[in-house]
Design goal:
The complex is a heterodimer of chains A (115) and B (112). Helices cover 0% and strands 48% of the residues of chain A. With 115 residues, chain A is an all-beta fold. Chain B is mostly beta strands and 112 residues long. The chains are: A mainly beta (115), B mainly beta (112). At the A-B interface, strand 5, strand 9 and strand 10 of A face strand 5 of B.
């Protein structure tokens, strides 16, 4: 069964360092989402791509976060510099975009700890 | 902004018991989704509801889309150990590929 792949699964970094997360969506899924989940809360959207274009980055802290999906397939989310408050689970999801195929399927996430 | 309330926040039950949880909102939604998240993993889609009043089952899970379109409930019958986890409702205003708004989650624990 097709799955969303994410790496790394765990990342520990010191504040002020740069970190990057990678996501490979389910093949054929045109829409890709990055969510951030703080411990004890539900996921919240950071950025949404339709193919290679950003359609919603209203909740992305653009002073330190960036995201790209250059060829409309896999995507990278970067934080520079990392802050203590960035410690969270970063989830990638993808969806098809026809009929009822809008449902989002999530990857296993990257657990970030900033020291 | 919209308010999304999920209850209960946590449940402690014995194996074999039935479970019921719900989500209520101040806004109308056109889709209600229910996800389950295991510790350290991403959410997994359990049930999707697309029509007010719709009642849908997936094995021991049953979910309903409220008539007012402002609420939904999820029932689990005859709970088993693998049901442990956090359950999230995630409604959506439209039918398209827009972001999900997640509830606060219901943490289910099974007491031995």
């Amino acid at each position: 069964e097709a799955e969303v792949a994410q790496s790394p699964r765990y990342k520990i970094t010191e504040k002020s360092q740069a970190v990057a997360f990678w996501c490979d969506p389910i093949s054929g899924h045109a829409t890709l989402y990055w969510y951030r989940q703080i411990l004890g809360q539900g996921p919240e959207l950071l950025v949404q791509f339709q193919d290679e274009s950003v359609v919603d980055d209203s909740q992305l802290p653009k002073d330190r976060f960036s995201a790209e999906r250059l060829k409309g397939v896999d995507s990278t989310l970067k934080i520079q510099p990392a802050e203590l408050g960035d410690s969270a689970m970063y989830l990638c999801a993808s969806s098809f975009n026809r009929g009822k195929g809008y449902e989002q399927f999530f990857g296993p996430g990257t657990r970030l700890t900033v020291l | 902004g919209q308010q999304l309330n999920q209850s209960p926040q946590s449940m402690f039950i014995q194996e074999g018991e039935d479970v019921s949880m719900n989500c209520t909102s101040s806004s109308i939604f056109n889709t209600w989704l229910w996800y389950k998240q295991d510790p350290g993993e991403g959410p997994v889609l359990l049930i999707a509801l697309y029509k007010a009043g719709e009642l849908t089952s997936n094995g021991r899970l049953t979910a309903q889309f409220g008539i007012t379109r402002k609420d939904s409930f999820l029932n689990i019958s005859a709970s088993i150990p693998s049901d442990v986890g956090i359950y999230f409702c995630a409604p959506r205003a439209n039918f398209g590929n827009e972001k999900l708004t997640f509830g606060t989650g219901t943490r289910l624990t099974i007491i031995p």
